[in-house]
Amino acid sequence: MSNLKPFPKGFLWGGATAANQIEGGFDADGKGLSSADMVAYVPKAERGAHSASIEISSQELADILSGKKQARFPKREGIDFYHRYKEDIALFAEMGFKMLRISIHWARIFPNGYDEQPNEAGLAYYEEMFKEMHKHGIEPMVTLCHYETPLGLTEKYNGWLGREVVGHFLRYAETVFTRYKDLVKYWLTFNEINMITMHSPFTGGGVVIDRVPQAEQENAKYQALHHQFIASSLATKALHEIIPGGQMGCMLARLPHYAYTADPQDQRLAQWLNQQNLYFTDVHARGEYPKYMLRHWAENNVKIQKELSDDAILKQYPVDFISFSYYVSLTATTHDNAERVGGNLMGGVKNPYLQASDWGWQIDPIGLRITLNDMYDRYQIPLFIVENGLGAYDNVEADGNIHDDYRIAYHRAHIQQMQEAINDGVDLRGYLSWGPIDLVSMSTSEMSKRYGFIYVDIDDDGNGTKARSRKDSFFWYKKVIASNGADLS
Question: Any idea which residues are catalytic in this one (predicted)?
Fold first, then answer.
């Protein structure tokens, strides 16, 4: 490490969150319901050790809305950031954050998604939050839609499957750009946009997939995704018109795949899985669908509906930078009987060279350097890491301390590989850890799957004082930021 150039001056260290996982106040001050508010907590014993429970059927949704299904909905509760954001931002500032990624809960601004006029209480809430960040010298990065499609759009259009939602999203985007044009420079359109087709169309786009005939469901996912691509491009156009110097990024759940063996069949499978992951950023950054996906659609009878101007819109308004989450690498094989493991919403074959987290996610810091190099070689535009972290069980000692050396080791190893990538020539602008404060897990709605440098006293059943306390990693990350990555000890 001593022979490496330091992190660049002005590197943006910080953390990343999502409104639906931290805010709470799900019905406060005129907020409407969203897709996230419908996700019930399922105890681990009922869902299996690590499986996610974020898809929803039309019958389950009806039962939730009618009250027939009784359950806890942890994302409605969050960690009460809605009322405690000043306290939490002060803690982030104590660590020295240069940037904090949050999302605006769309239904807090337009309660149904299709409303003609915005909710002033929601607009005022985020305005005060951004001012609080600036008071502490923290630059906001704002995600417009972080798994938070207003439920009204699901009920009226089946979420992003309806082309009309593009216009409603653009109204929302223009509203917040105009309101916060002096407070927010960095924006993202959709969080982990690849999840709408790769994992959960309800989480990714408010689409209740069983409302679509079985034979048309795969087509429906790609159609909803296309509408998000168009909305993203039009929002990018609007941002550049409303906020001079504003920067729009896309956001991908980067899931790099290795081939399990040197068998060319395994090599080709890994290549194809990587192409399936990267075609989302291909569209955002290059402004067109790659030909390998056009072949895939032709061979699988996928036929999306486009308006005449769509191709021109994608080409004319690409993103300014690419951001991504990185937690794991995955391994693929065509061979039978290989042991399988979990991952960030997706699993793969066990890589014998890697350790795994408490949730079975394979820990691969070198994979981050590979990812950064591959993505920068491919796109040649600035990159941000906007999610990276370790979900683990934490133990509170009798004296209240939390000794999370495992979390420090995880971040240290990944930051070392970031510096390697920067020295390789990658234009990496920032590192936002996920999540800097304990929050409700997106995939399992647990609190025991803890990522934070800050502990929040809430358990999986929602019990606790909500008190915040500093883990050992809090003081370590503070030192990292103060030294601009030079001191990782």
Answer: 387
The answer to the question of residue 453 being in a domain is yes
Residue 454's pLDDT is 98
pTM > 0.85: yes
The two structure tokens encoding residue 425: 């020539």
Q: Which of 387, 397, 420, 446 is catalytic?
A: 387
What average pLDDT score do residues 382-395 get? Answer: 97
Give the number of domains in the chain: 1
Q: How would residue 54 be classed by pLDDT, with cut points 50, 70 and 90?
A: low
Q: How many CB atoms lie within 10 A of CB 87?
A: 11
pLDDT at site 405: 98
Model confidence at 329, pLDDT cuts 50, 70, 90, reads very high
Domain holding 38, by residue range, is 12-482
- Provide the CATH number for the domain around residue 146: 3.20.20.80
Whether residue 1 is contained in a domain is answered as no
Does residue 31 lie within any of the structural domains?
yes
218 is catalytic: no
Burial class (CB in 10 A: 0-12, 13-18, 19+), 409: middle
